[in-house]
Amino acid sequence: MKLAVIEIGSNSIRTSVYRSSKRNRFKTLDRWREPVRLGKSIAQSRLLTNEQIEETIDVLKKFQDRIQRYEVDSISLIATAAVRLAKNQEQLIFAVLKETGLQLHIIDEQEEAYYDYVAVHNTMRIKDALIVDVGGGSSEISLAKKGRLKHGLSIPIGAISISDLYLKSDPIKSSELANAKKAINARLDNLNWMSSEATFVGLGGTLRAVTSILNREGKKKKTLHNSIVTSEQIDTLFNRLLHSSNEERSKIKELSDGRFEVILGGILIISEIIKKTPSNEIRFSNFGVREGYVFNYFHKMNQAKD
């Protein structure tokens, strides 16, 4: 069976095409993405603009054409924080259905954290894991103990929202930085279970970019999955980017697709989270919500067959 999953995120729309193999496993046949900054307006007004809705539909139509060559059995269209937080999400759901025939499923906070856990559980041999997914509009934090999910939640802060609401200057002022940290910690202070001994597993666009930069500069392997970065490396990179201009950040190839505008907000969230844990390093997972969704999808399919 072949399945295509399109994920509408806060910073981009991503698509992957999968073919099921042995029980609950699959092979990724292709993947691609296109930057669409839905999270930018959400941070300010909690509304998707007509232009953003039109751009989303144009991208979805283009992706549908590309998916066709794989003769998939099914297409799943899911959306995360940017659409979840939008007051006019029904407008997007209706427009997408009318223009593409696709039914948009908005993943709730618990689902998103759960799918992150499922992805990590199935691709990493880690029994005790604190799983942190910093996205554009939200961050998901989950704790697994002995391979079982104990806690999982989503907090409405992400790389785009922190950058757009607090880190507005170029260069960024120290007062802005202090206010951003205060806002992040207000969301973290009651999560006492983050102090549990566990491997810190990080995923999402911010950490993908950070790991790519550090691997390239350290001349390490190009395979990102299971790469380890230390909190010291992250802090050093943050300080370097903090003292660079927007133009200078835009020239870093891993940030050239528009991520340079929001990378500092994303790294700041990661940095503040890791301070609440016993960890001093992060193991990166290249698999997240989409893959967790697919593992779950094929598991249900196999259960139905049985």
Key features of this structure:
306 residues; alpha/beta; Nucleotidyltransferase, domain 5; 2 domains; five-stranded mixed beta sheet; 46% helix; ATPase_NBD; Ppx_GppA_N; Exopolyphosphatase; pyrophosphatase activity
CATH class of the largest domain equals: Alpha Beta
User: What's the helix-strand series?
Assistant: EEEHHEHHEHEEEHHEHEHHHEH
User: Averaged pLDDT, please?
Assistant: 94
Work out the count of structural domains.
2
Mind telling me the CATH superfamily name of the largest domain? Exopolyphosphatase. Domain 2
Please write out the topology.
Elements: E1 2-8, E2 12-20, E3 26-35, H1 38-45, H2 50-68, E4 74-79, H3 81-84, H4 89-100, E5 104-106, H5 109-123, E6 129-134, E7 139-145, E8 148-155, H6 159-166, H7 174-188, E9 199-203, H8 205-217, E10 228-230, H9 231-242, H10 246-250, H11 263-275, E11 281-284, H12 289-305
Parallel strand pairs: 1-4, 4-5, 6-9, 9-11
Antiparallel strand pairs: 1-2, 2-3, 6-7, 7-8, 10-11
Helix pairs in contact: 1-6, 2-4, 5-12, 6-7, 6-11, 7-11, 8-11, 9-11
GO molecular function: pyrophosphatase activity
InterPro entries: ATPase_NBD (IPR043129), GppA/Ppx_hydrolase (IPR050273), Ppx_GppA_N (IPR003695)
Domain Ppx/GppA phosphatase N-terminal: 17-299
Walkthrough of the structure:
The protein is α/β, with parallel strands linked by helices and 306 residues long. The chain has two domains: 105 residues, ATPase, nucleotide binding domain (Nucleotidyltransferase, domain 5, 2-Layer Sandwich), CATH 3.30.420.40; 175 residues, Nucleotidyltransferase, domain 5 (2-Layer Sandwich), CATH 3.30.420.150. 46% of the residues lie in helices and 22% in strands. It has twelve helices and eleven strands. The strands form two sheets. Strands 8-7-6-9-11-10 form a six-stranded mixed β-sheet, sandwiched between helices. A five-stranded mixed β-sheet has the order 3-2-1-4-5. A hairpin with a 5-residue loop joins strand 2 and strand 3.
